[in-house]
């Protein structure tokens, strides 16, 4: 901008066009002169996401495979709860994932790279347009629960959240409506606490004792439950967001009353909500969805002990619902 002699107020206009109005070309920046637009077109480009495939479920869930500028594929999911006027986008933060959680489709893909902040932002913009088109309602919530580990792409995630929440040159969403989900990296949770972030944090827990968690999540070997609980206590003391546990109900593995008792103990040191998630089966993965009655009994026990526990019923059963399934159809994330 400086090389072109662009004045400060013009820079602000351009910034607003890109990050608030989400335009895809300089021709749309109608309050700039034609000469300036032509100069910008000669020097810059918009490497925006393009839609590769959209799947719509009978329950309203919309799953989109986006193609990035280098040809890699990622996924985003629109999860509508129309009766509550709640429209959530689940965004990805990496192409593939460097973790290898045993139950996850994305874990079968190698991590190719982190997304940059603009690619995360573009997912929100693209799915917000879907929410408006399909349901005549904007997005209300954002969850970083798609492909990848957000805390291993933290600089991009942090900048994307800044752009999403910025009121003037951004989308103006409240950080209270944003949840970042992590498989559990204690050092980075301490960093979030020290930075006093305002968004919410979800720990992908899935088992409440060291042995079981290590069986399905190898990251537990270097970030055990003791270290994670210490980090979450720091987050609760310093940061502004809420804490929740994500707990996938895996058949005959983690849903006994004994499992519930162990989970209850991890809910005593700070306020936390438990989201029990029905599993979407993944080809080649030796886990299945737990029986609904057993899942209900698990949740009922926790609630009877004063732990707030809700069950997230499976969505998108008639499409490639599990995270990573759709992009994984392309092998390693490329065509």
Characterise this structure.
The protein is an alpha/beta fold. The longest helix has 19 residues, at 117-135. The two termini are 36 Å apart. It is globular and about 70 Å long. The strands form two sheets. Strands 1-2-3-4-7-8-9-10-11-12 form a ten-stranded mixed sheet. The chain contains ten helices and twelve strands. Helices cover 33% and strands 19% of the residues. The chain has two domains: 1-46, DNA polymerase, domain 1, CATH 1.10.150; 49-328, TIM Barrel (Alpha-Beta Barrel).
Number of helices: 10
The CATH architecture designation of the largest domain is Alpha-Beta Barrel
CATH class of the largest domain: Alpha Beta
The N- and C-terminal alpha carbons lie at a distance of 36 Å
State the domain count.
Answer: 2
How confident overall, as mean pLDDT? 92
Q: What is the string of helix and strand elements? A: HHEEEEEEHEHEHEHHEHEHEH
Sheet-strand content, in percent, reads 15-25%
Which consecutive residue ranges, at least 5 long each, have pLDDT under 50? 330-335
Largest sheet: 10 strands, mixed
Measured as a percent range, the helix fraction is: 25-40%
């Amino acid at each position: 901008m400086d090389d072109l002699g662009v004045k400060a107020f013009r820079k602000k206009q351009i910034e607003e066009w890109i990050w608030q109005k989400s335009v895809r070309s300089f021709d749309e920046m109608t309050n700039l002169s034609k000469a300036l637009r032509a100069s910008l077109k000669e020097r810059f480009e918009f490497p925006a996401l393009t839609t590769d495939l959209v799947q719509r479920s009978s329950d309203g869930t919309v799953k989109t495979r986006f193609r990035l500028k280098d040809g890699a594929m990622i996924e985003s999911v629109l999860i509508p709860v129309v009766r509550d006027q709640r429209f959530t986008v689940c965004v990805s933060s990496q192409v593939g994932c460097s973790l290898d959680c045993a139950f996850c489709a994305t874990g079968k893909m190698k991590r190719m790279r982190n997304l940059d902040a603009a690619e995360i932002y573009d997912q929100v913009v693209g799915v917000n347009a879907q929410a408006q088109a399909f349901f005549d309602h904007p997005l209300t919530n954002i969850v970083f629960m798609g492909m990848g580990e957000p805390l291993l792409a933290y600089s991009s995630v942090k900048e994307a959240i800044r752009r999403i929440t910025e009121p003037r040159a951004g989308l103006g969403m409240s950080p209270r409506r944003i949840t970042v989900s992590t498989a559990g990296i204690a050092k980075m949770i301490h960093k979030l606490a020290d930075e006093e972030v305002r968004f919410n944090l979800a720990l992908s827990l899935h088992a409440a004792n060291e042995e079981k968690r290590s069986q399905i999540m190898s990251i537990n070997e270097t970030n055990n439950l003791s270290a994670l609980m210490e980090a979450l206590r720091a987050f609760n003391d310093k940061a502004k967001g809420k804490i929740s546990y994500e707990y996938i109900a895996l058949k005959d593995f983690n849903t006994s009353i004994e499992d519930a008792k162990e989970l209850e103990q991890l809910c005593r040191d700070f306020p936390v909500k438990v989201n029990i998630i029905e599993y979407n089966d993944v080809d080649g993965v030796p886990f299945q969805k737990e029986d609904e009655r057993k899942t209900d009994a698990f949740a009922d026990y926790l609630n009877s002990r004063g732990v707030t526990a809700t069950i997230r019923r499976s969505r998108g059963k008639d499409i490639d619902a599990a995270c990573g399934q759709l992009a994984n159809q392309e092998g390693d994330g490329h065509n």
